[in-house]
Amino acid sequence: MSDQPPQGWYQPGPPSPQNGLGTAAMVLGIISLVLFWTIIVGVICGALAVIFGAIGRGRAKRGEATNRGSATAGLVTGIIAILASVVFIAALVPRGCFYVGTGTSPCTNR
Questions:
Q1: Gap between the Cα atoms of 106 and 61, Å rounded
Q2: Residues 65 and 56: beta-carbon distance below 8 Å
Q3: Which of 9, 26, 86, 98 has an alpha carbon 20 to 30 Å from 75's alpha carbon atom?
Q4: Where are the domains of the chain?
């Protein structure tokens, strides 16, 4: 007997890599890094980038994905964006400049 499948049949190939989370982590990390000053977007997108980056790195380590670099970039930029947002908040809140609402901001009256 031969190890070849019968004529007309084909061998299925290896599964395609699951690179979606690593790519999403990188995109969200870049967005959060650019928009860290919006605080909410910076923190939320940064947190999602960290989560997706960690999962993407795990998939790459197991051989299920091929974009370990993108996942790592998303993880790192997400962490930096979260830290930048926290520093931004810490710098503005004590001065009374963290203002949400209508009317004039306390920072513009100085």
A1: 50
A2: yes
A3: 98
A4: 20-92
Q: What is the pLDDT along the chain (110 residues), one digit of tens a residue?
A: 556 666 777 778 777 888 999 999 999 999 999 999 887 888 999 999 999 999 999 999 999 989 999 999 999 999 999 999 999 888 877 766 665 666 666 566 55
Distance of CA 87 to the CA centre of its chain: 19
Asked if 71 contacts 28 with a C-beta cutoff of 8 angstroms, the reply is: no
d(CA 52, CA 49): 5
The tokens describing 34, both together, are: 């650019």
